[in-house]
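Field reference: "sequence" (input) and "structure" (output). Example, Bacterio-opsin activator:
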Amino acid sequence: MNSNPTAKPAGTAVDTGLRLTLEVWHPDCWTLEVTEETDASLIAHTVYNETGHDVKGHFTAYGETMRSVERLVAATRASDLTVSVSEMERRHGVKRHGAVRGKPATELFVTYDSRNTISDAFLAGEFYQEAPVRIQNGTEYWPLFFEGGDRAALSDRLEAVRSEYSADVTVQRLRTNDAATNDRSQRTDSLSHRQREMFELACEHGYYSWPREVTTRELADEADVSKTTLLEHLRKAEAKLLDPSDDA
């Protein structure tokens, strides 16, 4: 898995298109393995280039108990598919919105081989990622936009991904652009003014692209806020937009 294969270019006018959420499994993926082995989950935020084929991803690991989170971290360290793991912060029952509301969580930076990911397949298939990827119970949930609105072409692209990566890919949700625009509008209505402002600025400048097109410091300078403030607004916005209880 590699979060954020690409983001829709800023300022692009899109009249037609399909928005979809995919359930994905593919071999040789450490995020799928550790969430299958343990009762904790992951949110994949963004990915940085390292050296050679290695990339470093930023993840939030969360679960019902801190013990379950610790088991996931241990499984991540022990995986043959990871190079290094840094644990940045632990939160015990912090009141947060979205997928980790009130749950123990920790921030991870994990280095791994990009060749064991599926994001390049989505990039080649002209998909645009719209939000961080959730990984639960050995399944990735990808929120994507497919430009053009041709369902036959979409089916062909997904079949190509399945074939090339020996992947199981299931369409969980599929909406037209107009319907999705209304749905996203309703979801962003839950954001505070500053959260929406920071999230839209991040999307505009390619913060969620892969590789990332702007650094956190550059984005904070653009917003005229501290890096800590920017990240706090973005994490809260991401969590609200990803709240599984909102999924239809």
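The chain has two domains: 17-175, 182-246.
The beta strands are 17-25, 41-49, 54-62, 82-91, 105-113, 127-129, 133-136, 139-147, 168-176.
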